[in-house]
Design brief:
By secondary structure, the protein is mainly alpha-helical. The protein contains 14 helices and no strands.
Amino acid sequence: MSSPGVQGIGAPRTATMLWITGVWGLCFVAIRLGLQDAPVLWFATLRALIAAAALLLLCLVQRRGIPRGRRTWALITLMGIVNVTVAFAAMFAGTAGMAIGAAAVLANAQPLLIILPAWWIYGEAVSVRIVLGIMAGFAGLLVVGVASGGGTGAWLSLLAAAAVTAGTLLSRALHGADLVAASAWHFLIGGLLLAGLALLNEPAAAINWSPQFLAVLLFLSLVGTAAAFLAWFREAGRSRLGLLTAWTLLVPVIGVAVSLLLPGERPPPWAAAGIGLVLASLWLVLHHPENKTNRGKVTKDSDSAGRRVRE
């Protein structure tokens, strides 16, 4: 994780966030395709456990140690429960019960959900302009969601958003812990809990191990989960949470755009107005003058720390 002196002050890196949001937008399409061959809980379980296995293998190759300390393990366990068990189950069930665009909209409500916790827990000041920008962006997401059709999974998708928000807040508290190892173990813990729920509620024999399902599962687990969440947690450790989560406004836009290639996923043309509002609000939030000031402050703080070390 980033050093405590700079943690949470900077703005997230644009290239990294474009990659993360692009991948997560594709994940909603991947989930819809994968649900054709697997039940909800088993599919979510496989996603988590394969991601855990990949990161644990990386830890072994790079000789990373096992996390230590009761506090660290308590945080990792809580992250596993909320960010994996609850979030993945709710996200997959929500996507199964409604159109891709609507599910992606509701499951990415983090920008609104994180404002008050970030202010209360970490003391992150939020300007009126940022709040208005995020609200305008979410209004645009609602337009996209309505255009894509509703469904019975609305509350589940909102639950997924709340769970991911809680996981992001918890990840910020992992000071000094190896982020790769912590990510691996939280996916393993959450995945094992999902496996228990799946065993109680779904037949494992219902999975159709088709080539399409295998390709979708590997993309979702390795790229959309192991790699993307690791990059997300790194940015959470060095960025202001309000600015970080504003980027998730792009996820449903990308999901809707890609879903146009699938049958039965055709939002009406006026959804373009909602997408335009999302992009405008994202520019408003990320180009706030305060961001430049914060980036300059981080640079000055880092330079000062370097000078003190040299002296």
